């Protein structure tokens, strides 16, 4: 379980393909603190650390993960948002994030607004019932408050800190992103559908 508060960014140094799997070597400031078999969110995707070397770690994505995320587009030099799993003895600064991506979305609009930025994303309409005005969503693993929620789009406002310390500053119109919607909303929706 994660909070959507990005701890560090990492850079992909190598991509390996084995059968239908893709492995990624990632260099980051926290790689040397990781352990094999540890869960780590990479742009919001929970992946298991399966190898370590110096200041790099490796994770592997299977076919199912590749089909539901933007990991198939990852290449060397790409900047990745990283978050270790949350500690149960601390504050929950973002929202509950599982690292289980629901779908991908597309960055449609990037607009600078005198010191902050407004991003608009489109997403498959079948997920519209999982978003509410001023609710939370995870975009590439970053917990953000959504507004201007439509049937297949929403916007977020980005403060300078988030812009600088996550990979959101690299997004341009047309960029695919990983989206995970609020788990509490999913449970509420499921419960109402069963009644």
UniProtKB/TrEMBL annotation:
Keyword Transferase carried by entry: yes
Any Gene Ontology biological process: riboflavin biosynthetic process
InterPro entries documented for this protein: ATP_synth_asu-like_sf (IPR023366), Lumazine-bd (IPR001783), Lumazine-bd_dom (IPR026017), Riboflavin_synthase-like_b-brl (IPR017938)
Keyword annotations of the record: Repeat, Riboflavin biosynthesis, Transferase
Keyword Repeat annotated: yes
Coiled coil spans: none
UniProt repeat feature Lumazine-binding, residue ranges: 1-95, 96-192
EC top class, as a word: transferase
Reactions this protein catalyses: 2 6,7-dimethyl-8-(1-D-ribityl)lumazine + H(+) = 5-amino-6-(D-ribitylamino)uracil + riboflavin
E.C. code: 2.5.1.9
CDD domains cross-referenced by the UniProt entry: Riboflavin_synthase_like (cd00402)
Segments forming domain Lumazine-binding: 1-95, 96-192
GO molecular function, one term: riboflavin synthase activity
Pathway this chain belongs to: Cofactor biosynthesis; riboflavin biosynthesis; riboflavin from 2-hydroxy-3-oxobutyl phosphate and 5-amino-6-(D-ribitylamino)uracil: step 2/2
NCBIfam families reported in the protein's UniProt record: PRK09289.1, ribE
Role of this protein: Catalyzes the dismutation of two molecules of 6,7-dimethyl-8-ribityllumazine, resulting in the formation of riboflavin and 5-amino-6-(D-ribitylamino)uracil.
PANTHER family: RIBOFLAVIN SYNTHASE (PTHR21098:SF12), RIBOFLAVIN SYNTHASE ALPHA CHAIN (PTHR21098)
Identification of the protein by name: Riboflavin synthase
Species whose genome carries this gene: Lacibacter luteus
Lineage: Bacteria, Pseudomonadati, Bacteroidota, Chitinophagia, Chitinophagales
